[in-house]
Specification:
The complex is a heterodimer of chains A (280) and B (261). Chain A is built from nine helices and no strands. Chain A is mostly helical and 280 residues long. Chain A has one domain (26-278). In chain A, helix 4 (106-144) packs antiparallel against helix 6 (158-196), helix 4 packs parallel to helix 8 (214-240) and helix 6 (158-196) packs across helix 8. Chain B has one domain (46-70, 89-259): P-loop containing nucleotide triphosphate hydrolases (Rossmann fold, 3-Layer(aba) Sandwich). Chain B has helices at residues 60-67, 90-97, 115-126, 132-145, 161-173, 191-208, 219-225, 243-248, 252-259; strands at 22-31, 34-44, 49-54, 75-80, 83-84, 100-103, 179-183, 211-215, 228-233, 236-241. The two termini of chain B are 14 Å apart. Classes of the chains: A mainly alpha (280), B alpha/beta (261). The interface between A and B is medium-sized, with 30 and 37 residues.
């Protein structure tokens, strides 16, 4: 069944890598092999999910559930994180920009920082922690208790039901959560400034967005859809390929968070450069 | 005392058919260096029940997983109602899986769903035209069939192993399968629960007339519910035939197996 099934690429629990060879050269080869195998399997997994996602039947009921699980239930955490970062950024910037005689640029600097970078990356990292761990642990638990096999045995495509819905929900919800995080960050940033000197929210926003256009808002916000793709794909993959009982579930949850956070940060480097090039 | 020899044999008419419901031909399967199945072949006709016996780790469950396509053979073929399932995509395999019910060894109930939702799961995904009341009626009928009516809202974690097997069986029967695969249906159960499960399987097979494969360690269970059996040893079929053939076998492993059962 070359074309199919199995979640560990042949229905088997993937063999965990052996102990790290002590010799430096063979150790490097071992690392490269593991790295390439992981990416190769991730690519095959992503292809299967993509193929399942674009062919009927579509799992709208599960997608709706995941939108709620990933979006609505992450909102308080994301809003709180965004608000806290906005306040901290305002307080820190106030001090430094006053020192350099640029206090009047404070609203613009705050808006720029929050909308361009802080809001998107904080949102992605918070979602990566909450949702990535949740997806990784849930799917890994289902894998080791044969629940994913039971889904397959019921003639339901687990790539479509479990992976595609979660990944799509991450892609759709990340930009919306980022907007919420941005808003909370700006409100708390304004509040932190307004405590020191009188400044209405209208003045803050008008001054902050002066000279800005949609190119300053949309690309940084929508780049988080890519972060959602990374978080969803990596977490589903880590969960569905796991093996080894309770320890395997723990490893899947941890690795989902660590790897998705890492890849989000690395992807951000590339995306920022692309945004600078294509949306100057 | 009841012994294996004086348990009455199952008396179920076996429908003859030119195309077997399940045909496994010369299948090999290895995991790394470990050869699990070495040239195993078997056929199961419509309405027939085959018991697969053998020691733990002899490849019995792997054989079932090959038949339902959860794993693929290294070589050899698995045919369902005459069609080779090798090389099929998940969605293509789904066409055959809709005709099969699978009871997992540990039931594999969805632990975040109630018993009602567990049984409704295959129906929801394959009977989109079914109304909510029809769905509810069908689920209740299935749970009643396995003696689990009145437990609709319970979670799998809150019921016993025997009850989980019953619900697993109801879920396996949800789509009205023509083939039933049972992986250790009585494993881990007390003798009374095991006997109840045997009776239930026998009743279902009589009523629904499915082709079945039952993987078990339990000779009593095998003799109660199966028409034929195979005994796996060292990845190969050591004995194939009726229960009497097993008792008459001169194979050393078969004798050893019977002696300790």
């Amino acid at each position: 069944m070359s074309d199919t099934p199995s979640l560990a690429l042949d229905g088997q629990t993937p063999t965990p890598p052996g102990p790290l060879p002590m010799h430096n050269e063979s150790g490097s080869k071992w690392m490269i092999t593991i790295f390439l195998e992981w990416f190769g399997d991730l690519g095959i997994f992503a292809w299967r999910v993509l193929r399942a996602a674009v062919t009927p039947p579509f799992e709208f009921r599960e997608l709706y559930r995941q939108l709620d699980e990933i979006g609505s239930k992450s909102l308080p955490l994301v809003a709180l994180a965004g608000a806290a970062i906005g306040a901290v950024l305002a307080m820190e910037s106030m001090e430094s920009m006053t020192r350099f005689g640029a206090r009047s640029l404070l609203p613009s600097a705050l808006v720029y920082s929050v909308v361009h970078e802080i809001g998107p990356i904080i949102t992605a990292l918070v979602v990566s922690g909450r949702v990535g761990a949740g997806i990784g642990a849930e799917l890994a638990s289902m894998k080791v208790t044969e629940q994913i096999d039971a889904i397959e045995a019921s003639a339901v495509n687990p790539y479509r039901l479990l992976a595609a819905t979660r990944i799509l929900a991450c892609i759709l919800m990340l930009p919306l959560l980022t907007l919420a995080s941005d808003l909370c960050g700006l409100v708390m940033g304004w509040a932190a400034l307004a405590l020191v000197e009188p400044l209405s929210f209208h003045q803050f926003i008008t001054s902050g967005f002066r000279g800005s256009d949609f190119n300053d808002l949309l690309p940084p916000t929508f780049k988080t859809a890519i972060f959602g793709l990374i978080i969803g794909t990596v977490s589903c993959y880590q969960g569905m390929r796991t093996g080894g009982g309770a320890a395997g579930v723990g490893r899947a949850a941890t690795s989902s968070v660590v790897l998705s956070s890492l890849f989000v940060i690395l992807a951000d480097v590339v995306l920022v450069k692309l945004i600078i090039i294509f949306f100057p | 005392m009841t012994t294996i020899a004086n348990i009455p044999n199952k008396s179920q008419a076996v429908q003859a058919s030119s195309v077997p419901a399940i045909a496994v031909d010369n299948v090999f399967k290895s995991f790394g260096d470990q050869k699990v199945l070495i040239g195993v072949s078997l056929t199961v006709g419509r309405g027939e029940t085959l018991a697969v016996l053998g020691r733990s780790g002899s490849g019995k469950s792997v054989l079932l997983r090959l038949i339902i396509g959860l794993q693929s053979p290294d070589s050899g073929s698995v045919r369902i109602q005459g069609s080779d399932i090798a090389g099929l995509s998940l969605d293509q395999l789904g066409v055959y899986r809709e005709k099969m019910g699978f009871l997992f060894q540990h039931s594999a109930l969805y632990d975040s769903l109630t018993l009602e939702q567990n049984v409704a799961f295959p129906l929801l995904h394959h009977n989109s035209g079914m109304s909510a009341s029809e769905l509810s009626d069908r689920v209740q009928q299935l749970l009643k069939e396995v003696g689990m009516e009145g437990h609709l809202d319970k979670m799998p974690a809150n019921i016993s192993g025997g009850m989980q097997k019953r619900v697993g069986l109801a879920r396996a029967l949800a789509l009205g399968p023509e083939i039933l695969l049972l992986d250790e249906p009585t494993a881990g159960l007390d003798p009374i629960s095991a006997s109840e499960i045997d009776d239930l399987v026998l009743k279902l097979q009589t009523e629904h007339h499915m082709a079945s494969i039952v993987v078990t360690h339990d000779l009593y269970s095998a003799k109660t519910i199966a028409d034929r059996l195979i005994l796996l040893h060292g990845g190969k079929v050591a004995v194939e035939g009726t229960f009497q053939d097993l008792q008459d076998s001169h194979d050393d492993f078969a004798r050893e197996f019977l002696k300790h059962s």
